[in-house]
Structures are given as C-alpha cells and as structure tokens.
C-alpha cells in the first residue's frame, strides 16, 4: 500500500465513482429478484479491499457475500479513488464506506445509487479477516494524515497499546481549506454526505457540525456603519440578512460555507453582476437567530448548489437543549486550556446519553477495544446533537459540568470521553480528581476571602463605637 500522503487530483467526482462501484456490484452479485435495497460496506485492511453485502427485503435484512475483493478486480481503482476524493486535509477520509443501491419497479427495476462515509468509527471484522491492527491505522494515517484532534480515540489507544507512534499534522493544518474560501469545511463535508444519502443520520451530522465554527451571511441589503473600534457592524447599523422564499411559500434563512457559494446565489438574483456583502458569524449564533425570528421556517446552507435545508423544529431541538459551545470549540481548535475552562466553569453544562430501561436510565459507555472487556469510559456530550449522532434513540440528560464529572468518578469510570465522534477529548479518573480538587480548593479560598472582608453591618458598628486609645 502506498505511503505517499494523498493530494487532490483531477478525476471523476464521488457520485460518478459511486455509480461505477454500484454498476460493478449489480454485474457481479447474483441475487434473487425483489430486493428493495442493497447495502455494500467497503474497507481497506491489510493491503486488501474487503466488502460485506446485505439485502433488505421489506423489513427483513438478508446477509450476503463477505470477504476481500480480488486484487485484479476492475472495481479496485474506483474504490481507491473514492477514498482519495473523500479526503479533507487534516480531517481525514473514511475508514468504512457504504454504497447503497435502491431498486424500484420490479421485475425491471430502476436503480438509484448513493453512499455514506464513516470517517471516525473503528472498522469491525465482517468475516475471518480479524480486527484492525495498529499497522492498519499507521498505513491509513500515512496516506491520509489528520491533525491530532481528528485521530479517533480507538485508533490512538490501539497504537499506544501496540507501541506504534502515529503521524499527525499540525493543529493549524485543518484550517487550510479556509484559504480556498471555505470557512467551515466540516459543515461542507457533512452537507456533501447528506446530499448523497439524505437521511436523518446525515441531517444530524450537519447540525452537529454547526454547533461550532462559523458560517457566512449575505447582508447586502443592510445599512452598515463602522463601529468606534473599527467593527464592521457598529451600533448604528441596520442589519438585514438574506432570506429566500421556497417553492412551497415558506421562508428560509440562508447561510454559506464559502464566499463562492454565496456569490453563486447572488448571481442568480443580480444578473448585472456585483459582489455580495458577507458577514462571518458564529454558526451557533445563526441557529439562535433563526429560533428567535418566527419568520424563518428553515435554515438553508449553500442553496445555490449541493445544499441542505434544515427545518425550524430540528434547529429548535438543537439550540434549546443545553449545550457547551466553549468545550466544543476548544476541541475543534485543540485548545487544552480553553477545554478545561469550559469543563470547570460554574455555569458550564455537559450531557449524558441515557438508555431508558423500564424506570431506569442507564448512561452509555464507549465500547471497549478488547472483546469481552467491561466498559470503563463514560461518554459525556457537549450538545443533544452529539448524543443523537451516536444513537438517535438515546435520551439526552444535562447537568452542570462539574456535577457530571463528579458523577463519572462516583460511578467508578476509569475515563471520561467528551463526545463520541471527533473532535473528542479523553480524561482519566486521576486527572478528573486533580481538576475537581483544584476547583474545590479555589472555591474554598474565595469563600474565606469573602468572610474576611467587612460587610455593611460591620461598617455601621464601627461608626457607632468610637475608638479608644
């Protein structure tokens, strides 16, 4: 397997590659007619491409072929290109890809082909190939390097256990797409996945990525007055944000991941040319803006091309639930001091993902790396969207962050992992004890200092009682 880091190359797009792979699947697999959906999982392991096939017939899922694809198969180049075309510098590419073929109109069906990509989950054994090894991780990251914050916890733990040092890009490497005009490459990548497979899971991923970072607003119709300190939008400004009327008569607040996307939409409404006036704003603030203004029925991101429209109720669900933007942003920026400040702030919150069993709510733990081992890493989350990204069936329960960390210690957890999908942060029980003890000491010192300061009543007594020498 090549160890040369991947670089963007011209060639077919991802949908064209999916069509090539899907056509090959239909040509080589022998199945009984009448299936509704063909699901084909792909992964690279040990220098081979492995696949797993499942058929859906109504409510029944039928397992099919499992094993490596022949090395000389005509489909191998398309799979390799699909992995390369999915790569985002610093963020990585998929460990497992799933090609989905829908069939309608038997006995002469028409087919629709889509795909989803798992950039963070650990590839699981499908046959007798065994689990991924540290060498598999090393080869993957040499070819498709990531920043340290984007290396999944399971991969880092596997490498540490086997004594393998993993390569990592500098923290700033992930910001490189911004120089090409993309202010939020993670949202853009999530939208691409949604367009190719528009289901609820993909929509949650878009919302999850909007809980940090920034997006662009078109404020061309605004009256902008520079602030006293040089702010682009000063106190005297009148801000008018672009809204779009949808074919069904509803209205959408428009936001963009790049200036190019905003320009494409601007050109539709201004055939005489010109450039839009763009304002870069926190993505969470834009979500809150929609919730606060009842005229908006949706948020639409990058509407000119391959965009995503998110309904008002979905955004209300994400924004109105407690969330910790400071911790999420700190993990995105790999800023440890900001992370600790967000975790230990008096007003900070974290969420538990709970699986309700009768009258009990059981918190979820990370799946252990070793088969048969008891789970020991409690999962905590920065938002309800992070909980739903792991499992939409989980119940999200919030608590003050200090209380949530204390709960982890009291429950006997060896570690705490913040969020299930990267960027994540893992803290050991020993680190938690030290941090919480430090906070308790600082709080006690503040209380003692307040006691030593004379209050109003003491001052009044001193005024009434003259001092005697």
Number of domains: 3
CA-atom Rg in angstroms: 26 Å
The residue fraction in helices comes out at 25-40%
End-to-end distance, in Å?
A: 91 Å
**Main sheet, how many strands, which sense, barrel?**
6 strands, mixed
Counting DSSP E segments of at least 2 residues, the number of strands comes to 17
Question: Strand fraction band?
Answer: 15-25%
Main structural class: alpha+beta
Protein name: SseB protein N-terminal domain-containing protein
Region (Disordered): 440-469
Pfam families: SseB
Domain SseB protein N-terminal: 188-317
Q: What's the layout of helices and strands?
A:
Elements: H1 14-28, E1 37-45, E2 48-57, E3 60-68, H2 76-85, E4 96-104, E5 110-118, H3 134-143, H4 153-161, H5 185-196, H6 200-209, E6 214-218, E7 243-245, E8 251-255, H7 259-269, E9 278-282, H8 283-292, E10 298-301, E11 308-311, H9 312-320, H10 325-333, H11 336-344, E12 349-357, E13 360-363, E14 377-381, H12 384-390, E15 395-400, H13 401-410, E16 415-418, E17 425-428, H14 429-452, H15 456-464
Parallel strand pairs: 8-10, 14-16
Antiparallel strand pairs: 1-2, 1-4, 2-3, 4-5, 6-9, 7-8, 10-11, 12-13, 12-14, 12-15, 16-17
Helix pairs in contact: 1-2, 3-4, 5-6, 6-12, 8-9, 10-11, 13-14
Region (Disordered): 440-469
InterPro entries: SseB_N
Organism: Kocuria turfanensis
């Amino acid at each position: 397997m090549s160890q040369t880091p991947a670089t963007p190359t011209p060639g077919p797009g991802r949908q064209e590659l999916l069509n090539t792979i899907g056509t090959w699947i239909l040509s080589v697999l022998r199945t009984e007619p009448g299936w509704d959906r063909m699901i084909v999982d792909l992964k690279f392991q040990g220098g081979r491409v492995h696949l797993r096939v499942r058929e859906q017939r109504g409510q029944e899922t039928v397992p099919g072929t499992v094993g490596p694809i022949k090395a000389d198969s005509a489909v191998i180049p398309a799979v390799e290109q699909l992995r390369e075309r999915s790569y985002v510098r610093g963020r990585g590419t998929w460990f497992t890809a799933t090609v989905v073929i829908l069939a309608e109109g038997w006995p002469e069906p028409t087919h629709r082909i889509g795909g989803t990509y798992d950039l963070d989950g650990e590839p699981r054994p499908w046959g007798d190939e065994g689990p991924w090894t540290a060498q598999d991780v090393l080869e993957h990251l040499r070819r498709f390097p990531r920043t340290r914050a984007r290396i999944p916890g399971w991969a880092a733990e596997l490498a540490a256990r086997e004594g393998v040092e993993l390569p990592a890009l500098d923290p700033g490497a992930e910001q490189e797409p911004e120089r090409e005009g993309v202010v939020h490459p993670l949202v853009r990548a999530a939208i691409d996945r949604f367009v190719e497979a528009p289901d609820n899971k993909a929509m949650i991923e878009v919302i999850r990525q909007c809980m940090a970072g920034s997006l662009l607003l078109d404020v061309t119709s605004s009256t902008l007055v520079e602030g006293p300190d040089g702010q682009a939008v000063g106190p005297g400004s009148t801000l008018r944000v672009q809204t779009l009327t949808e074919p069904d008569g509803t209205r959408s607040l428009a936001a963009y991941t790049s200036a190019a996307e905003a320009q494409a939409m601007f050109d539709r409404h201004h055939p005489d040319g010109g450039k839009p006036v763009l304002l870069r704003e926190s993505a969470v603030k834009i979500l809150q803006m929609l919730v606060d203004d009842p005229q908006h029925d949706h948020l639409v991101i990058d509407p000119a091309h391959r965009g995503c429209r998110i309904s008002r109720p979905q955004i209300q669900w994400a924004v109105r639930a407690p969330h910790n933007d400071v911790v999420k942003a700190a993990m995105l920026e790999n800023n440890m001091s900001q992370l600790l400040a967000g975790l230990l702030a008096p007003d900070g919150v974290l969420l538990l993902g709970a699986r309700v069993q009768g009258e009990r709510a059981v918190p979820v733990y990370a799946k252990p790396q070793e088969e048969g081992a008891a789970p020991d890493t409690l999962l905590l989350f920065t938002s309800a969207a992070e909980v739903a990204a792991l499992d939409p069936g989980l119940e999200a329960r919030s608590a003050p962050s200090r209380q949530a960390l204390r709960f982890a210690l009291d429950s006997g957890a060896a570690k705490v992992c913040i969020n299930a999908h990267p960027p994540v942060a893992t803290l050991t029980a020993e680190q938690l004890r030290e941090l919480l003890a430090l906070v308790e000491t600082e709080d006690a010192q503040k209380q003692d200092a307040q006691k030593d300061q004379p209050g109003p009543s003491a001052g009044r007594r001193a005024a009434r009682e003259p001092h005697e020498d």
